Amino acid sequence: KVYKTYSGTNPEAASQAIDYHQRQLHYCGIHNYSDWENTDWFKETKNESIPLSCCRETASSCNSIVKKLQEIMMHVIWAALAFAAIQLLGMLCACLVLCRRSRDPAYELLITGGT
């Protein structure tokens, strides 16, 4: 019954007790990790992973969603940095053109007097 009501993030006593025991006693589920497949938490998360308290530090596929989100965020960050660099380069080029225009007398306005 306790496993059926596990929520993962809520500070409920039952969820905290499960997490604590899995971390301290180094076990997962009642018999093994497949016990989690029959819980409401596993079905609701739809990420086919077990609770973090069940994971070993060396497990590579324990919580796949967190790693996938980190990879996606790194791509987003690199894309944003590249876009910022392009914008900065564009502003620098515009400043160079304006500075050169103000110093070079060859550039003059086509319309000098009113309309």
From TrEMBL:
<dbReference type="GO" id="GO:0016020">
    <property type="term" value="C:membrane"/>
</dbReference>
<keyword id="KW-0812">Transmembrane</keyword>
<protein>
    <recommendedName>
        <fullName>Tetraspanin 3</fullName>
    </recommendedName>
</protein>
<dbReference type="InterPro" id="IPR008952">
    <property type="entry name" value="Tetraspanin_EC2_sf"/>
</dbReference>
<dbReference type="InterPro" id="IPR018499">
    <property type="entry name" value="Tetraspanin/Peripherin"/>
</dbReference>
<keyword id="KW-1133">Transmembrane helix</keyword>
<feature type="transmembrane region" description="Helical">
    <location>
        <begin position="76"/>
        <end position="99"/>
    </location>
</feature>
<keyword id="KW-0472">Membrane</keyword>
<dbReference type="Pfam" id="PF00335">
    <property type="entry name" value="Tetraspanin"/>
</dbReference>
